[in-house]
Design a protein that fits this description.
The protein is of the alpha/beta class. Helices cover about 40% and strands about 15% of the residues. Helix 1 links the parallel strand 1 and strand 2.
């Protein structure tokens, strides 16, 4: 049997957020039916990741369903895996061009061409997370320039920034670097209302490109080429 893919999501009390992550897990399962896929949560939802991992036997790849690095990736996930035998820890999902593409698609659902954009991420005190969000913004700027003929301004903000509104124009479009509905998406929408945003994109959510990215992270954690069939694990 190949190693179980144990996806670990942040967690939310929002039923819509739980459902969206559940749909992503179903996309992942459907694209590789030969590999067991399980889902656990770091907080606010069940099954708790530690309990779910404790019920798994054999080799496991612990895969953070998180868009960027930070405390959860560097501390919580590693603590979760501990010294469990036959356990690999995959990288978090981002940054990756496929995330940029899904963010672009969600934004283009109602974007005003040429309008300035603010890209909101959840927030982290880790400087590396800030650099990763800036990388997504650069990719989004270039992708929008390809379709619009000119590079729009793309501002980067964490939803935990006290000065999030500084330098932002009313009427800017809002790009969404969140995985699913929940606390931070509610805050994003509240900030967008205060900004009188032109269009507010939906979270990244369940998308085939994200499921593809999950499997690439799984393969990389096992030291395999991302195009190899999972049965090779």
């Amino acid at each position: 049997m190949p190693a179980t893919l144990f996806a670990v999501a942040h967690g939310t009390a929002d039923p819509a957020g739980l459902a969206e992550v559940g749909r992503l897990a179903e996309l992942v399962r459907a694209s590789r039916p030969d590999v067991p896929v399980e889902l656990g949560w770091l907080e606010l939802a069940q099954p708790a990741a530690a309990e779910a991992l404790g019920r798994l036997a054999g080799p496991v790849v612990v895969l953070p369903l998180l868009l960027s690095t930070g405390y959860h990736v560097k501390v919580d996930i590693r603590r979760l895996a501990g010294d469990r035998p036959q356990t690999a820890i995959a990288d978090q999902l981002g940054p990756d061009p496929r995330i940029v593409e899904v963010v672009r698609q969600r934004l283009l659902a109602g974007r005003t061409p040429g309008a300035e954009v603010v890209l909101f991420g959840a927030g982290s005190a880790d400087p590396e997370a800030g650099r990763q969000l800036a990388q997504v913004a650069d990719g989004l700027r270039q992708a929008l320039a390809t379709t619009e003929g000119a590079e729009p301004a793309v501002h980067v903000r964490f939803l935990t920034d006290d000065g999030w509104r500084d330098g932002l124009r009313p009427g800017s479009d809002v790009a969404n670097h969140l995985l699913a509905p929940g606390f931070f998406n509610d805050r994003l929408r509240a900030y967008a209302e205060r900004l009188a945003a032109g269009f507010v994109a939906a979270p990244i959510g369940a998308h085939p490109l994200l499921a593809e990215l999950v499997w690439d992270r799984y393969h990389q954690a096992l030291g395999l080429d991302s195009r190899w069939p999972t049965a090779a694990g």
